[in-house]
Design a protein that fits this description.
The structure is a single chain. By secondary structure, this protein is mainly alpha-helical. The protein is 35% helix and 8% strand. It contains three helices and two strands. Strands 1-2 form a two-stranded antiparallel sheet. The longest helix has 9 residues.
C-alpha cells in the first residue's frame, strides 16, 4: 500500500493511519530507505508493507479515515 504524506505528518502519524499502531514505524522506514526520525515532505509517497499489528485498530482507523498530523 502506498500513502501520500499530508502536511505536518511524521512517520508515527503514518504508522497510526495505516496500521492503527506506531509499531509500523520501523517497517515503513525500512521499506522506504529512510530513518525513523527523518522529516517527511507533504506529497511524498511512502510504501507501507502489508502487515497487521492489531486487526481491530487497523480496521478502526481505516473505516474512520483517520489521518493524524501531530507535528
Amino acid at each position: 500500500m502506498n500513502v501520500t504524506v499530508l502536511a505536518r505528518q511524521t512517520l508515527s502519524d503514518i504508522a497510526i493511519q495505516v496500521y492503527g499502531d506506531v509499531s509500523g514505524v520501523v517497517d515503513i522506514a525500512a521499506a522506504n530507505n529512510i530513518g525513523i526520525t527523518d522529516e517527511l515532505v507533504p506529497g511524498q509517497e511512502l510504501h507501507c508493507p502489508e502487515v497487521v499489528y492489531d486487526n481491530y485498530m487497523q480496521q478502526y482507523v481505516r473505516v474512520r479515515n483517520i489521518k493524524p498530523a501531530t507535528k
